[in-house]
Amino acid sequence: AQSVTQLGSHVSVSEGALVLLRCNYSSSVPPYLFWYVQYPNQGLQLLLKYTSAATLVKGINGFEAEFKKSETSFHLTKPSAHMSDAAEYFCAVTPGNSGNTPLVFGKGTRLSVIA
Amino acid sequence: NAGVTQTPKFQVLKTGQSMTLQCAQDMNHNSMYWYRQDPGMGLRLIYYSASEGTTDKGEVPNGYNVSRLNKREFSLRLESAAPSQTSVYFCASSARGADGYTFGSGTRLTVV
Fold first, then answer.
1. Cβ-Cβ contacts under 8 Å, B51 against chain A
2. Tens place of pLDDT for every residue, chain B, 112 residues?
3. Which class for A96: exposed (0-12), middle (13-18), buried (19 or more C-beta within 10 A)?
4. By the 8 A CB rule, do B44 and B60 touch?
């Protein structure tokens, strides 16, 4: 079975500071990993994904994430936070060889950006 | 715009009432999913349909039923609503696992 742990339910950073949102996964087979963003009162939007190609993945809005198998991690980073980055972020995992096995989501991390 | 459409966007029910949440996608995706989102709980899978004609239970199926009406449409039914079903419900679809999901904008349901 797959699972995801997001460390920190709430992260607060200053505008212009580094954003680091942590995600650790558990999977019995090589996984596919995803980060989604949810703005208030909206659905989830795909930020980026890892599907066994390059381990450093770039996404939309300047975000990137690095797959580290030895650490079972897929942390999300952005060099410089903008006010518009304030949202909730979800990490998700699915087995990489499973066709359409449903995603398992973490509990989410709310990012606040302080001016 | 192509995507996933959910109706209604908001609903208030009394305990014991029934209702159906509708979901339709126009991307020719094979798989469709229903999740509920509760504060501090992330998204939890209720039911999914890997392909037209099949449905399977997820993590929290009790109190819900689903119908995959055709390739485009996947509905979620609450037969006898309970306050514990107060939540935001999201429908999603995907072509294959590596693509991730496209989500609808959600239905905010309150059961009083």
1. 100
2. 679 999 999 999 999 999 999 999 999 999 999 999 998 899 999 999 999 989 999 999 999 999 998 999 999 999 999 999 999 999 999 998 788 899 999 999 999 9
3. middle
4. yes
Q: Which residues, in sequence order, are CB contacts of A59 under 8 Å at separation 6+?
A: A35, A46, A47, A48, A49, A65
Contact A99 B97 (CB under 8 A): yes
Q: Which of A44, A71, A66 is nearest to A54 (CA)?
A: A66
The reply to whether A100 touches chain B by the CB within 8 Å rule is yes
Tokens of B57: 């239970």
Nearest CA to A19 among A33, A27, A30, A8? Answer: A8
